[in-house]
Design a protein that fits this description.
This protein is α/β, with parallel strands linked by helices. It has twelve helices and eight strands. Bound molecules: 2-phosphoglycolic acid.
Length: 264
């Protein structure tokens, strides 16, 4: 089954509006030489305060705005109400987002997000017509203790709880070993592929064979232009969630170009 690759840039808490504008323009310009079917699905996740800036470029780029999708880095599961500091799915849709990253290890670690919260967010995102990018991954201690698969299976089962087969099929998962994030230590491609194939089996078990074959599962953790070809050559890796290397147009565009070399 052929799954369209996704290259997603997670800008994290970086870039002021002018910087976000320049970077987004650099990516948008690169995509002009290609048709949408030639390109992977490109997703950019800026900070909330730059959503409007990138959405305005997307709307005015003259190419129909169909080549670069916008993601938020987090959301709340309620539509509105007394939740100071939070942003709802409906608000993010209104701001031009079609994807929302949830359960990133930095949110789990520093903001105490639980599997249960991530499941509520996934449900709200899908109910709102957007696509969740559900992150999972193990710590170095868990890997060394040999509990990687068990830990990730638990995270995935919890995140997908109560979702319909159609909802699971259109969702995206990002496997991001925590020890590989921002460290320059990329997970070996074959090992990443093994874990991702395991995740796919968990999806088949909790949902259906069809949903497991359709869901796109990305690798994240120190992805660079030099690593992406080998990663994209693996059977089960459907793309990448890129942090550091997404902050420069040159390196992000090279990741897209190298993806197209392997998966045209
Ligand atoms: P990195 O970040 O590419 O800088 O390792 C990936 C991520 O956290 O999504």
């Amino acid at each position: 089954m052929s799954r369209k690759p996704i290259i997603a840039g997670n800008w994290k808490m970086n870039l002021l509006q002018d910087e976000a504008k320049a970077l987004f323009e650099g990516i948008e310009k690169f995509t002009r030489d290609f048709t949408a079917p030639q390109l992977p699905t490109i997703v950019i996740a800026p900070v909330f305060t730059s959503l409007n800036v990138v959405h305005t470029i997307k709307c005015n780029c003259g190419c129909g705005g169909d080549k670069v999708a916008i993601a938020a880095q987090n959301c709340h599961w309620e539509n509105s109400g007394a939740y100071t500091g939070e942003v709802s799915v409906e608000m993010l849709k209104d701001a031009g987002c079609s994807y929302i990253i949830i359960g990133h290890s930095e949110r789990r670690q520093y903001f105490s997000e639980t599997d249960e919260m991530i499941n509520k967010k996934a449900k709200a995102i899908l109910a709102g017509g957007l696509i969740p990018i559900i992150c999972c991954g193990e710590t170095l201690e868990q890997r060394e203790a040999g509990v990687t698969d068990q830990h990730i299976a638990t995270q995935i089962r919890a995140a997908l709880k109560g979702l319909s087969e159609e909802e699971v099929a259109k969702s995206v998962i990002a496997y991001e070993p925590i020890w590989a994030i921002g460290t320059g230590k990329t997970c070996d491609s074959k090992e990443a592929n093994r874990v991702i194939a395991m995740i796919r089996n968990v999806v088949k078990e909790v949902s259906s064979e069809k949903a497991g074959d359709a869901i796109r599962i990305l690798y994240g953790g120190s992805v660079k232009p030099a690593t992406i070809e080998e990663q994209m050559s693996q059977s089960d890796i459907d793309g990448a969630l890129v942090g550091g290397a997404s902050l420069k147009a040159d390196s992000f565009n090279e990741i897209i170009a190298n993806t197209m070399k392997v998966r045209a």
